[in-house]
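Quick check before the chapter quiz. The format below is the same one you will see on the exam, so make sure you can read both the input and the output lines.
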Amino acid sequence: MLRWTVIFVILAIVAAVFGFGGVAEGAASIAKVLFFIFLVLFVITLFTGRKKI
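Here is the expected output.
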């Protein structure tokens, strides 16, 4: 999940450099959503991942 976030951030930066504002904005918003999904899943896994009985 984090890998896809980094890919979309790089895509947004490259698109912004070449002047494709709409593509850059779309890629940045996708990266933002993926990052927040990653954070939620990370926190859930952090609390439920390794319980010792």
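If your answer matched, good. The chain has one domain: 2-48.
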